[in-house]
Amino acid sequence: MKIATIIVRTLLGLLFLYTSISYFLHLNPEAASTGEFKAFQLGLVASTYLFPLAKSVEFLCGLSFVTGKFTTLANLVIFPVTLNILLINYFLTPDNLPLAIFVFIGNLFLIFTHWENYKGLFKMD
Asked: What is the number of structural domains in the chain?
């Protein structure tokens, strides 16, 4: 289980680092979007802060996953992002759904493997 955790953590970390660095450095051309996804994406871009915020969170969590430091915190911080990635791909761009499922399930897997660290969040005193 420890090796699987390291593999999943590293793959997710590298994926988050790649997507965030390529966003900030404009390494990849913008993919042409159409239909409802294009309208959704234009709304996100119009907000001016949401994409940079999400990509900054992805960068910090990706760094955390790759280095293995603060992974318990990174799992919680990146969870809403991975859920959003899953839902956007499910409803608007189903072609990318397999990667979105991997990212979301990978995040859940890492939370499960660090569950001892989260038990205190659910205590009722």
From this structure: 1
Lookup result for tokens 């990706």: 62
Q: What pLDDT digit, counting tens, does each position of 37-61 carry? A: 788 888 878 888 888 999 999 999 9
- Tell me if 7 sits within 8 A of 102, measured CB to CB: no
Q: How far apart are CA 10 and CA 67, in angstroms?
A: 8
Report how far Cα 28 is from the mean position of its chain's Cα atoms.
18
Q: What angle do CA 112, 78, 10 make, to 5 degrees?
A: 70
For residue 85, give the nearest of 67, 69, 71, 98 by alpha carbon. 98
Range of the domain at 53: 2-122
- Quote the tokens at residue 35: 């239909």
pLDDT value, residue 30: 76
How many angstroms separate the CA atoms of 72 and 3, rounded? 17
